[in-house]
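Notes from hallway chat w/ T.B., transcribed later so I don't forget. T.B. wanted the structure written out for a chain they're using in a teaching module, and asked if we could keep both sequence and structure tokens in one place. Agreed to drop them here.
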Amino acid sequence: MRIIKGRAWYRGRLDALSLGIDDDGTIASIRKTLRGDEEIDHGDALILPGAVDMHVHMREPGLTHKDDFASGTRSAAIGGVTTIAEMPNTLPPVTTAMALDEKAATLKHRGVVDYALYAAPRSGDAVGPLRNAAAFKVYMAPSTGDLQIGPGELEGVLREATAHRKLVVVHAEDPSKFRAGKVLSLVDHAAARPKDAETSALAILDRIRANAKVHVAHVTSREGLDAVPRGATCEASPLHLFLDMTRPLGAQGKVFPPLRSREDREALWDAFRSGRIDAIASDHAPHTLDEKSVPFDQAPGGAPGVATSFPLLLRRSRAGDLELSRVVAATALRPAEILGVPKGAIEVGRDADLIVVDPRRIETIRAKRLRYKCGWTPFEGMEGCFPTDVYLRGEAIVEDGEPAAEGRGRLLRPSA
């Protein structure tokens, strides 16, 4: 049995513990002292559960000039993410059982971290054939790809997803509330896709949801948060927590839904601190610098982020702006619970997915450090606390801050 020692987050607090890892990669024992065949002592560094990012676009298949699965999951590991849930708007999009099976075959043995796959049913009739997906993603408005569906189709998806006990993740914007006009800046972009598009879509969702298990993606404002249907879960992206439309990002800050005002960002932070937001998800959606270097209205929406979510949040915790318990809950425990995967906590029987980090080691975020294939980050120059070591099922995938293993990621098929 392998033993990993350090100040582990266990039962809601940090304690000097030894974690016994079984041969199958699960945690077999948690005690003050354990003996095993191999012992790794991380001293007074923190050992936290590996982050679960339930919203990433790794761009494979079909869009691998932007990112690919090996590269994207390597970046995820650098940032402390040990499980991702991959979105369906690749080429071809995952709208059929054949596309789902082919994507699973393409990604096999290529992931550095464990992964689940979303599918995008276009109607209720498509849900049954896609039941092997971990969860479903639906788009109520245009985003990258052509997967938007109307309220009638969405109602059918929700009804059938309930019958199959599947999670439905919703991109909630009402395109009837979008405003026409020139979109030449982040301010224009926020005005063109305003907050009332978010709240209107959530009101529609609330009316037709019935008993479906629903998760609302990338909430951008307190108004949007207030409109999340009762009993649904929700996420926020670091894009909307750390960036706003006043930053000089140009098209690199163009995302769907848009960055909001500084006041909206601060209100979202207050809500996150108070526990009103279930999960933090990166919405990692890279495009090349060439694709982003065209006039703003022609640039695609999306930005990379899988490697920076945890480091940014832990830096805020180190600064005293955020409780460590919120970081752990929102990056690990709650997303694992929502997805239904045996991750997200240091407990006997769970996978030994672990982050080792010293919060006193503060780094300036640089794109080169993150190993993104697209070569840039919207968080350039900000500060983060990056892991020194990361374990996937007890095996090191990051050592001394550098990638240490390839291809160990497994496909997860959780039940909702």
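Follow-up for T.B.: The domain at 50-349+360-385 is CATH 3.20.20.140 (TIM Barrel). Might be a good example for the class.
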